[in-house]
Design brief:
CATH topology of the largest domain in chain A: TIM Barrel
Helix content of chain A: 40-55%
Shape of chain B: globular
Oligomer: heterodimer
Number of domains of chain A: 2
Strand content of chain A: 15-25%
Radius of gyration of chain B: 27 Å
Helix content of chain B: 10-25%
Structural class of chain A: alpha/beta
Strand content of chain B: 25-35%
Distance between the termini of chain B: 68 Å
Low-confidence stretches of chain B: none
Strand order of the largest sheet of chain A: 9-10-8-7-6-5-4-1-11
CATH class of the largest domain in chain A: Alpha Beta
Largest interface: A-B, 48 and 24 residues
Number of strands of chain B: 33
Mean pLDDT of chain B: 84
Distance between the termini of chain A: 27 Å
Strand order of the largest sheet of chain B: 11-10-16-7-8-15-12-13
Structural class of chain B: alpha+beta
Low-confidence stretches of chain A: none
Chain lengths: ~400, ~600
């Protein structure tokens, strides 16, 4: 018998697909447009909310996350109307975390207050770098001063906030990164997302990198910088709790933890993904159409703008859950997870492989329940998963 | 039924023989075109090389036969049956079969290159078959052509009279008419051929055609082959009714009859690949001939390797595919083998390394198989302390050393022809390969080198090395020359302490360290880095003689992984799972199949 799904968290992701300009490293679903039909968006978002409120077992929302694109470009009244509508349909848990991704330009910072009034209680700032040259390389619209002003404003207006930095950039030395990271930590934030720059297909960087315009730090240098990041953030009381995320105790992103702990989440807006348990207790994967116009048109005539839903069977669910959960420092309670998903874990994972990975100091298995990647395991998590799950 | 076939004296059956790259296939194409076998628009380079591999590599693997109609200057219509033969040393056996079906040969010699090792070897084979020979001095349109000195060379080195040699160019068409006249005038018609005698025909070759089934290439000696005739295959005992009789022009043309002295093809509703045997005699069922033809000497495989399917469920498919190839290639030998590490597979015998490579490639390409080939090996004679002798095909199967008294390995006698500027390097190569010099002679600025060499030193990369140090000028031919005792040991390759069966090899004790080090180094480059340190070792009887270490992967992590990445990441994992089928696991180490194959191509390391 499956445990009562209503005791597990439910998160909501809202995708806003527009940006002022496309960043050369970004492979997310983002578009640049002069005019956006806000009313159509409002209607479409609400329609999808109505649909998913019916499709999933009814329970209050654990978190809401406005991602993009650049959701700080949304009119604050649109953000508010989505939050209000979601609350009316699902209800919100006590202390429901409502995050909005924001760019640190002065135009957007000026809207912080209005977002807060609309219900947003956490912002995640796309700072990316504190240095002018690097911001220019990354194609960002803001200056280093803008970034610092945004951090200060976020700190004053919101109780909780986070910002992102991209490191392991071309020409970046560990010493230079250490200076920048120290400066970032000195602002006293409680949450940081620190991503190593990766080159994704379909981005401007992909073409430029292939052409040889710039070179990324090699694997060993990147690994050194990763380890440096681990120890420096820990010494500031913001240890990593996920591969690229660092927080003071209790300040983790509750919304993102839902993904990594493989709980249910709904995704609305163009290109949003969801994974939720339906009324039959089956895990359903949803994926909406990427193109904003297409999604809007679909939502106008249908209850939602999603592709056909995909059923994720229990084995696949288990694979996904391990894949996500091993990114967390806390690791995975294997038997607990297996019970939640209705499988037997040692039919899914070969015990010998676990033992082998333990011998190689890549994994720990505490009391035969909690598996965790060690530091070196975490640095090679993709290979580790390939061994463990295949 | 009327039996109107060509008059014997107006038939010429001939083979085209040449060293590889001397322009044989182009010349054949030109002959076909001149005789109207194909229209200009149908001209395709290397028309007779049907296989993709043949066209891509620019070589001929299978012998091909085409009937040409040529009206000579004497006004008579001649029937010319042309056989194009392979030039590479590995396919000498194919050549010998073609020669047995003809009475004459056109020897093609490149006027910019002169006599090469296979020119010699082919001529000797043609003479063994009592052939008359027309010498064609080819590529005379090239600026570097020196027909006069090449003719002198043919006379000096081979001893063929070149007073009637034809100067020509397959590429530009110069001298083709003269060549056709020479074929008619200098080559003999079939020596015998009694139209009224019982049918007696030689099964020259056979292959599988997707539309026609099994196609049999024949040379009729006596009597006729006709459509509807019930025939008997004398060696296999099979009885069949002929359903098609025809010729290649090179297109299939149905003639319904073949008479004495003629060449062509038949089909007889044969579906089973094992039912035909090259060299067999085909005769009439009701009125059989008294004696079968001598047939062919069976080929002697020189190089062995085992082939295992990557996916063990494809074993049956591998067997069928080998069967199909063997039908088309009488020199491919195979028998079932089972290995503890690699499962069920086949031990295969080849004429040489190129032959081996081509078979592997055809299996993968034409039959869509993924294979694990073991290191090529020769057949060793293991004399055991109990007085028995065991033939060792797969080094992984070598008996315990304490049970071995001594080991003998096969030797070859190699003939190398080279411009003398490369002689020094070639002598050095032969010495490195444990060779014993037998003879060294000069003829017109070129040296002819005769060496005894252990075959095992030749199978890996000797030919490639020879070509590279002589900038392609030296040529090479060999024949088996008995067995000899030597200090041979089994070298094992281990990955994280686990022996890799496919890479076990027998080597002479004096070269173990060099070989071992080269192989380990090579593997280090070929095995992708993994999460753990990998030790790659070469060992002899438990003692490590060379080692390399592959450092562990330090970073392999996706920076961002959120709700939208789950499906993609799972699908990536599933794809990796499929990819693992192409991997072998040794002591937790995943090694792609390609690493094994490439590790054995050690040419650049010396």
């Amino acid at each position: 018998m499956l445990p009562d799904i209503n005791n597990t968290p439910l998160a909501l992701y809202v995708h806003w697909p527009y940006c002022l300009s496309k960043c050369p490293y970004c492979d997310f679903n983002s578009h640049v447009s002069d005019s956006v039909d806000v009313e159509s968006f409002a209607t479409a978002y609400k329609k999808e909310l109505d649909f998913y409120a019916e499709a999933t077992t009814h329970r209050p929302l654990h978190s809401i996350f406005f991602g993009g694109g650049t959701p700080s470009l949304m009119p604050p009244h649109l953000v508010k109307s989505i939050i209000d509508h979601a609350e009316s349909l699902f209800g919100l848990e006590q202390g429901c975390e409502i995050t909005l991704e924001a760019n640190p330009t002065s135009f957007e910072v000026d809207k912080f207050k209005a977002f807060k009034d609309g219900g947003v209680n956490r912002v995640s700032l796309g700072v990316q770098s504190l240095y002018a040259d690097d911001l220019a390389f990354l194609g960002r619209q803001h200056s280093a001063d803008d970034a610092i002003a945004a951090i200060t404003a976020a700190q004053q207006i919101f109780e909780r906030f986070s910002f992102d930095l991209i490191y392991a950039r071309p020409e970046q030395t560990p010493a230079k990164w250490q200076d920048e990271l120290k400066q970032a930590l000195d602002y006293g934030t409680k949450h940081l997302s620190l991503y190593q720059l990766t080159i994704e297909q379909g981005t401007a960087f992909y073409t430029r990198h292939k052409r040889g315009d710039f070179r990324l730090p090699d694997e060993f240098l990147a690994a050194d910088m990763y380890e440096l990041t681990q120890s420096l953030t820990a010494s500031y009381g913001l240890p990593s709790y996920e591969t690229s995320n660092h927080a003071a105790m209790g300040e983790e992103s509750r919304h993102n933890l839902v993904y990594w702990r493989y709980f249910d989440y709904l995704g609305i807006g163009p290109g949003a993904h969801g994974r939720y348990t339906n009324h039959e207790g089956v895990k359903v994967a949803s994926r909406t159409h990427l193109a904003p116009e297409k999604w809007l048109a679909l939502c106008a005539n249908n209850p939602h703008g999603a592709h056909p839903f995909e059923i994720i069977n229990t084995e696949e669910s288990f694979t996904e859950a391990v894949m996500m959960g091993l990114r967390l420092k806390e690791g995975i309670n294997l038997s607990g997870l297996a019970q939640r998903l209705g499988v037997t874990w040692d039919e899914q994972i070969n015990r010998d492989k676990i033992d082998m990975l333990i011998r190689e100091d890549l994994l720990t298995f505490d009391a035969d329940t909690q598996i965790r990647a060690t530091n070196s395991g975490a640095l090679c998590i993709n290979s580790l998963l390939n061994i463990l799950l295949n | 039924m009327s039996k109107e076939t060509h008059k014997l004296e107006h038939i010429r059956n001939f083979a085209i023989i040449a060293h590889i790259d001397h322009g044989k296939s182009t010349l054949a194409d030109r002959l076909i075109q001149t005789c109207g076998g194909v229209e200009e628009r149908e001209l395709e380079e290397q028309m007779l090389d049907n296989m993709d591999i043949e066209r891509e590599r620019g070589i001929t693997i299978k012998a091909q036969t085409v009937r040409l109609r040529y009206t000579a200057k004497d006004g008579i219509d001649y029937q010319l049956n042309l056989m194009d033969t392979p030039g590479h040393v590995d396919f000498a056996y194919e050549v010998s079969r073609s020669l047995a079906a003809c009475e004459g040969s056109v020897l093609v010699v490149d006027s910019t290159q002169g006599v090469e090792a296979q020119t010699l070897a082919n001529v000797y084979q043609a003479l063994d078959n009592d052939h008359e020979i027309v010498t064609a001095i080819n590529k005379i349109d090239l600026p570097a052509a020196d027909p006069e000195s090449v003719k002198r060379e043919v006379e000096d080195v081979i001893g063929l009279d070149c007073s009637e040699a034809v100067e020509c160019s397959g590429k530009s068409g110069i001298g083709i008419d003269n060549l056709l006249e020479a074929i008619v005038k200098q080559l003999p018609p079939p020596r015998e051929g009694d139209a009224d005698a019982p049918t007696q025909a030689l099964l020259v070759d056979s292959w599988y055609d997707a539309y026609l089934g099994v196609v049999i290439l024949v040379r009729v000696m006596h009597g006729h082959l006709t459509k509807g005739q019930k025939v008997k295959f004398m060696n296999t005992g099979a009885e069949r009714i002929i359903d098609r009789v025809g010729i290649f022009t090179p297109k299939h043309v149905i003639t319904d009859i073949l008479g004495p002295g003629e060449m062509g093809f038949i089909t007889a509703g044969i579906k089973e690949i094992s039912e035909t045997q090259v060299g067999d005699t085909i005769t009439d069922f009701k009125r059989p001939c008294a004696k079968a033809l001598a047939g062919f000497k069976p080929s002697v495989p020189m190089v062995f390797c085992s082939l295992f399917p990557v996916d063990s469920s494809e074993f049956d498919k591998l067997r069928d595919s080998l069967g199909k190839l063997a039908l088309n290639d009488a020199s491919l030998h195979y028998e079932m083998e089972s290995s503890q590490a690699l499962g069920l597979g086949f031990r295969c015998g080849f004429l040489g390394l190129l032959h081996m490579e081509i078979i592997q490639e055809r299996l993968e390409r034409e039959f869509d198989l993924d294979l694990i080939p073991t290191a090529p090996s020769v057949v060793y004679h293991i004399y055991k302390t109990d007085g028995t002798m065991e033939e060792l095909y797969n080094p992984a199967d070598m008996p315990d050393v304490v049970k071995i008294d001594h080991i003998e390995e096969p030797w070859i006698k190699a003939t190398i022809l080279t411009p003398d500027e490369f002689l020094g390097n070639l002598l050095q190569l032969c010495q490195e390969r444990r060779g014993e010099q037998i003879d060294l002679t000069y003829a017109g600025g070129r040296a002819m080198l005769t060496y005894r060499l252990p075959l095992n030193e030749v199978v890996f990369d000797f030919y490639d090395r020879l070509k590279s140090i002589s900038r392609g000028y030296a040529s090479f031919d060999y024949e088996l020359d008995g067995y000899g005792e030597n200090d041979l040991v089994k070298m094992e390759i281990r990955v994280n302490q686990e022996p890799v069966d496919a890479l076990a090899m027998i080597v002479h004790r004096s070269v173990t360290e060099t070989r071992g080090r080269a192989l380990c180094k090579r593997l280090k480059e070929l095995i992708p880095r993994q999460m753990f340190k990998i030790a790659i070792q070469a060992a002899i009887g438990g003692k490590v003689i060379a080692a390399e270490h592959l450092s562990a992967l330090r970073k392999d992590v996706t920076a961002k992984c959120y709700g939208g990445d789950v499906s993609r990441k799972r699908k990536l994992l599933e794809k990796q799972k499929k990819g693992k089928k192409k991997m072998r696991e040794y002591g937790n180490v995943q090694i792609p199949q390609s690493a094994f194959i490439n590790a054995l191509k050690m040419g650049d390391d010396h």
